[in-house]
Structure formats: C-alpha cells, structure tokens
User: Fold this.
Amino acid sequence: MPEPMTRAFVQAIEQFAKDEQIPMVSFEKGQRKDAVAADFRAKFPRREGVVFVGKAQEKSTVYRTEKRHNPRKNTSYAWIVKSTALVNHYYFYCVDENFGPFFLKFCSYFPYNAKLCLNGHEYAKRQLEREKIKYQALENGVQSCANPKRLQTICEGLSADKIDALLRKWLRRLPHPFPARDRQAGYRYQVSILQIELSLTQVLDRPVSGRIFFEDVIRENLDIGPNRYN
Assistant:
C-alpha cells in the first residue's frame, strides 16, 4: 500500500540526513531554490557528496485509491484513480565528481515521481579539470579554453548513457522509495527528457570578427519592428 511505503521513504530520508550529518532545509514559499543551493555549495568542502536536502510542498500527479460499489453483488472494492495533490517533495542537492552540481527530486507520494536536473556546462568544466586543460569559466559556460577542439569533443560526448549512469550511481547512494524486492521485480526509474536547453554559441577569435558579425545581424534585421509595414 502507498501509505506505508511513503512513511518508510520519509523516515529513510530523515535517518539518512541524520546519519550523514547532512543539513535539511524547508524551502519557504517564493524562495529561490537555486540561490539557497549556491550558498550551501560555496561552503561545501568536498568535490563529491550530498550538499543538503531540501523539502517543499508542491502540486504533483498522484494515484489514489477510492472505494467503489458493485450494485450487482452489493459489495465494495478499491479502485485506483489519477489525481493531483499538494505533497512534500525532497530535493537532494549533490555534487558529482564528473558532473559537478545537480539535484535529484523525489515526490514523497505514490507513484514517487522523480526529476534529475543537471548542467552540461558543469560537466564540461569537470572534464577540462580532469584533463588539466586551462579554461576561463563563466557562471553558466566557458569564456575561453586552451584547447577549444577538445572542449567541443567533450560537449559532444555528453550522452544519454552517461546521464543514465549518473542517475543509477546516485540512486544506489540515496534513500529509495521502492524497497529492494520491488526493484528486483522490475519497478525501476527510467530516464526521459522533460526539458532540455540548447544553445548555438558563436565563438569569435578577434574583436573585429565580433563587430562584423553584429553589423551583419543588424543589417539583416533593419525591417523588424514598428516600421516594418510602413
């Protein structure tokens, strides 16, 4: 039944945080989770581990059981229905040796939906550091690199298999909503894409190249705006 599973999962999270001495934070309404995570990461001393566990009430798709009546047999029976509810979600903000910062969010109610959020730029930075390639970092990107071709290869090498391996690695380390016997029976998380952000970055080798590029963009878009149909 979902209720005992939920209770056991929440208890496992709380015990995990206590045993590992990991801070637990209740997010306040309107609070920027990324800002809270940045503050905790700035004080985190290791290159890999769970930085903190966040808790927030959020609306989620859930499945409930309701009692229905069979008029022919005059008996009642349980029926599963799809619904929405405001339930607790637990955010595991972590740092991985290969991927850098990421978080894994679990809904605490059946069917225990989960969300993995990571940043490909952080993955690329970690690979550059592992290969001792000098680079200048931006908050969300790379401004310059001693070996741009290798950086391009690293970016192209971020595959679905590597992301899946990241998920499996941390599912083994973190509290899991499904008991071992259920996972062995095949009840496992599968990765699908909910949201992806891509960019085509123009790399300019000289300032004059940048001026030429922007002048061409402006020239080609002079008729965009209020005066387009005049």
Summary: The mean pLDDT is 88. The two ends are 67 Å apart (CA to CA). DSSP finds seven helices and seven strands in the chain.
